[in-house]
Amino acid sequence: MKRGILIVFFAVLSQHFALSCDACEKQQPAITRGITHGNGPNNNWDWVIVIVMVVITLVTLCFSIWYLIRPGENQSRHIKRTILNLQ
């Protein structure tokens, strides 16, 4: 019970630090206003870098979920069988 209360407490507390302050919010462009600290992207190359990072992250997430759901290793001599069959 105490562990659950601590998890909720830290989740609520961390959200306070994750949101931007008023001074940083004024420096941000409309698309990132309110979710990040500091000044926003200065030129178009910064936006390109951000978009590429988002695409790489989403592709990685999709592959991670795909291989968790359908791993594809069904051979009896696969290395995972040595761990799963260990008793």
Can you walk me through this structure?
This protein has helices at about 1-20, 20-25, 45-70, 80-85. With about 90 residues, the chain is mainly alpha-helical. The chain has two domains: about 1-40, no CATH class; about 45-85.
Which structural category fits the helices and strands? mainly alpha
Cα-atom radius of gyration: 21 Å
Q: Can you count the beta strands? A: 0
Tell the overall outline. Answer: flat
Care to give the gist of this entry?
By secondary structure, the chain is mostly helical. It has helices at 2-18, 22-27, 44-69, 79-84.
Features of the shown structure:
87 residues; mainly alpha; 2 domains; 63% helix
Which helices and strands, and how do they pair?
Blueprint: H1 2-18, H2 22-27, H3 44-69, H4 79-84
